[in-house]
Amino acid sequence: MSQSRISLALEGAELPTEGTILVFGPRGDADLSALARERVRIVQDFRPDHDAWQARGFAVSDKPEGRHAAAILFLPRARAAARAMVAAAAGHLAAGAPVWLDGQKTDGIDSALKDVRARVEVSDVIAKAHGKIFRFAVPSDGRFDDWAARPTAPAPGFAAMPGVFSSETVDKGSAALAAALPGDLHGVVADLGAGWGWLSAEILKRDGVRELHLIEADLTALDCARRNITDPRARFHWADATRFRPERRFDVVVTNPPFHTERAADPALGVAFIRAAAGMLTPSGQLWLVANRHLPYEKAMETLFRDVAEIGGTAGFKVLRALRPAAAPRPAR
Length: 333
Prior knowledge:
With 333 residues, the chain is α/β, with parallel strands linked by helices. It is 25% helix and 31% strand. β11 (209-216), α7 and β12 (234-238) form a beta-alpha-beta unit. The radius of gyration is 22 Å and the shape is elongated.
């Protein structure tokens, strides 16, 4: 196995011999073999990756805590989120502590390098596997403080945070789905992949909805939804939607499922949402789903439901309705 960028960067590097190492945002399969596990403190608020690190035996939390001797940051895709990560890490390190920032070129590592280099001295830039890693020391004057995360306003009365899906405006797919939902929607409803809550708020405009369960893997997005939605019918779950097991089955599931793994389209992710929804519904339950028109979800839905139809949409999106799960498979634990 070839060395990871982190392994190369840490060879002979001035990594402190004592204290913990803050590791921000690594995917669940990232290579941290160059670090002593007992020194690593992982920060990961995406539930599947958070749970993967727990399963690997690492100390992991959803937010940074305490003081640390060094930090390794895995670059998030959004520029504002990357800056916020740098500011957050600097707030948990002493002046002079080393920070490594690692990322792919397609996720903006060159822009991040330019941004950091404009503020502090950067050293040990290593390019490998279509990405880069570089090191800098935390300054003593708080010069990254203005990079701290600040809420966005994607819709009137709503707040989101940089890096969450559709943080600047309402997603067009969600808008198409909301427009297609019937006014008499009722019972116990779930919003799979609820994000910062705009679609959930639209669902809650239906008086017949007794409960709405917002299920979201991105804790930052879910925290935004908690602030955006104060309706007492709302229930919030930080969970991987594809593995969530409700206490009792839902009457309706509504979803605008993600379909990307990193930057590559991955229709299997949407299919996993469909399969999970089928396992969460009552025998007479309904699934309402929106998807880009090129995504081939109908075949999976026809396998899992007795009645599937396209009932709305736009030029770019289709809204699909599926009734009565065929086998009602339960989501895997």
